[in-house]
Amino acid sequence: MLISIYSLKKVLYEGEAESLNCKTMDGEITILDHHRPLISILQQGIIKILDEEKREHYIPVENGFLEVSSGNRVKLIVGA
């Protein structure tokens, strides 16, 4: 899946990944390939991304929004 994470100042991450883990208003969730469409509000925490080469990336966030679209794309707008 293609993950794009943006702050107001810059692109924090953009690339293909196997999974994304983040904290939402409803609790901690993990997004995998072909996840159903979803829009959610992010809570303060750490976004964890596992890329296709099995490397882990960690991005601290204060708040934001998550959108999973049917085209296997995940977009996040975050306050970092």
Q: What does this entry look like structurally?
A:
It is built from no helices and eight strands. It is an all-beta fold. The chain has one domain: F0F1 ATP synthase delta/epsilon subunit, N-terminal (ATP Synthase, domain 1, Sandwich). Strand 1 (2-6) and strand 2 form a beta hairpin. The model has no long low-confidence stretch (mean pLDDT 95).
The CATH superfamily name is F0F1 ATP synthase delta/epsilon subunit, N-terminal
Helix content: under 10%
Report the CATH C-level class. Answer: Mainly Beta
Q: State the helix count.
A: 0
Keyphrases for this structure?
single chain, 71% strand, globular, 80 residues, eight-stranded mixed sheet, ATP Synthase, domain 1
SSE diagram, text form:
Elements: E1 2-6, E2 11-24, E3 27-32, E4 38-42, E5 45-51, E6 56-61, E7 63-69, E8 73-79
Parallel strand pairs: 1-8
Antiparallel strand pairs: 1-2, 2-3, 2-5, 4-7, 5-6, 7-8
Summarize the structure.
By secondary structure, this protein is an all-beta fold.
